[in-house]
Amino acid sequence: MKYLLLKHYRGGPTPAVDYPPMDQWTPEEVDAHIQFMHDFAARLKERGEFVDGQALAPEGAFVRYDGEGRPPVTDGPFAETKDLIAGWMVIDVESWDRAVQLAGELSAAPGPRGEPIHEWLEVRPFLTEPPTVTE
Amino acid sequence: MNPPLLRELVPAVISVLVRRGADFPSAEDAVQEALIRALDTWPDDPPRDPKAWLVAVAWRKFLDATRAETSRRGRELAVEAEPPAGPAPATDDTLRLYFLCAHPTLPPASAVALTLRAVGGLTTRQIAAAYLVPEATMAQRISRAKRRIAGLPLDQPGDLATVLRVLYLVFNEGYGGDVDLAAEAIRLTRQLAALTDEPEVAGLLALMLLHHARRASRTGPGGRLVPLGEQDRSRWDTGMITEGVAILQAALARDRLGEYQAQAAIAALHADARSASETDWVQIVEWYDELLLRTGSPVVRLNRAVAVGEADGPRAGLAALADVDSGVPRYTAVAAYLHERAGDLEHAAELYAEASRAATSVPERDHLTRAAARVRGLLPP
């Protein structure tokens, strides 16, 4: 079963731990965080659970149709109050419990002083193709 | 026979089919199918004459496809008998393939894909993996590109500038999947340089070799970016640098300067410095002036500001930066660097953080975040 792990720049529940943005950490803390992310993805690949992962730039806009012959309407850059997705990882695992376990591990990425940042990650199951055998 | 040698045969085999009367899109498809079969069967059963094998199999595939097509349309079969192979003056034909695949009417991404397939002899699967798109998407992109150029004659002089641009794009893409695109771009540019007598082709080849020579030193542990000034120069490939410099010197001696030769000259000056502090920045600024005169490019103007900062000090660099459009990618990163060197650390840290949010790649973003963190660490608490 495939699950999407969504990382947010902002939005989501109130942060469990208050920590400054990454550019205010020490270079060693930044390196340790990045290394953790690499190692996490590498472990998933090794176990055959990794599907895809991408990071997103913070810039962008909302766009919608505005009627025949008119250019699309854009709303952006994103307002300060809006939820902002930072990136995702798609995993293919045995169960919801396994997905939650992995999201928990990822959320323990180190931050200032090497402490886990306890970041909220959103876990969402994929809707799948209907099964062939239904009875 | 290893795959690169097999791939070298592809343009010549396409040419043979075209000379026998196949249209380019069908010939190219047939050769691709023959190539896939060769990759599958040659390891166990290598042919005595690889090119003849490819021609025979590709021609058979072409006939099968044409037969299926003509019977669909209920018409008489026009091509049945296999004509004699005849002599194969392949060089001119290969050059024409470069022009056709990089035709100015094609979008760059399509020209890149078609060049890699028809001239480079890569399979659709390999190209798709290298550009991280599904194979079906890449197949569709290639067949649309071929439809677009289907009516064009193969024997017209082409636009060398777009060919060079396409090869430059392939080189800059780096590598993904099992194909090293940078090495492939070098191979294709080397082959093109042998087919033409144009100093800019040599200039591009020199530029690629001089940058490729630094590849091992460009990334550190965990894929982290190592900027030029901090690279371990003992890891630079001196053989490749020597070759690049020799090719560049021969091109420059012909006194028909162009953009790629000027860029290669800058790369050669970096390659020539045993340490970052020994770099001849004054000469590099002169080359940027030359490039700016020729291109008027805002990116060149930005890079020139960096060089001015090294040659005449960070304040002069910042003055040069004032003439650059602030919307140019990496503008904020350059501003951060120059402010850091000027001792304006607090402002530099803010700019590095801002630049990291505008970065277009993960390694670049991480590098700029780290720079912000480093500079903040230098500030008094």
TrEMBL record, chain A:
Residues 1-106 form the YCII-related domain. InterPro entries: Dimeric_a/b-barrel, YCII. It comes from the Bacteria. Transmembrane segments: none annotated. It holds the Pfam family YCII. Belongs to the YciI family. PANTHER family: BLL7171 PROTEIN, BLL7171 PROTEIN-RELATED. This is YCII-related domain-containing protein. It comes from Marinitenerispora sediminis.
